[in-house]
Every structure is written in structure tokens, then in C-alpha cells.
């Protein structure tokens, strides 16, 4: 087998942590803020696209689901 070249491997980009961007912590009572991290169809944007940390993404997911159950956000936008 041939050796893998360092140039051939994909590099992971370091994701900036949310305090650097001064993003507030997600809260289910702020649907306008949560919509920034959703597509037009109502899906949650992946962390690789929204450029947030894994910790922030987990909290964001939890708050979006909570807001959907309480009726602040729709499950699906038509």
C-alpha cells in the first residue's frame, strides 16, 4: 500500500467558540434568534455550516426542540 500524503488528508477547521462571536446562549423563548440556525424548511443547520462549537450546537438543538414542542417554532415550514 502506498503511504498517504499529508496533502491528501482533509484538515479539520477549528471552530470558534461562541463567546468569541458574542453570541448569546440559545433560549427557547427567542424564536427569532433560533431561526438564524434553521433552514427555510425548518431543519436545523449543521455546525459545520453555521460555524459554531459542538457545545453550542447541542444546546441550540435542545432549545429548538423545546421551542417546537411549546409552539414557538413550527416543526415544518411550508
From TrEMBL:
GO terms for biological process: translation. One of its GO terms (molecular function) is structural constituent of ribosome. One of its GO terms (cellular component) is cytosolic small ribosomal subunit. InterPro entries: Ribosomal_bS18 (IPR001648), Ribosomal_bS18_sf (IPR036870). Residues 1-23 are annotated as: Disordered. Keywords: Ribonucleoprotein, Ribosomal protein, RNA-binding, rRNA-binding. Transmembrane segments: none annotated. Residues 14-23 have a biased composition (Basic and acidic residues). The keyword RNA-binding applies. The keyword ATP-binding does not apply. Residues 1-13 have a biased composition (Basic residues). PANTHER family: 30S RIBOSOMAL PROTEIN S18 (PTHR13479), SMALL RIBOSOMAL SUBUNIT PROTEIN BS18M (PTHR13479:SF40). Binds as a heterodimer with protein bS6 to the central domain of the 16S rRNA, where it helps stabilize the platform of the 30S subunit. Part of the 30S ribosomal subunit. Forms a tight heterodimer with protein bS6. Belongs to the bacterial ribosomal protein bS18 family. This is Small ribosomal subunit protein bS18. It comes from Candidatus Roizmanbacteria bacterium CG22_combo_CG10-13_8_21_14_all_38_20. The lineage of its organism: Bacteria, Candidatus Roizmaniibacteriota.
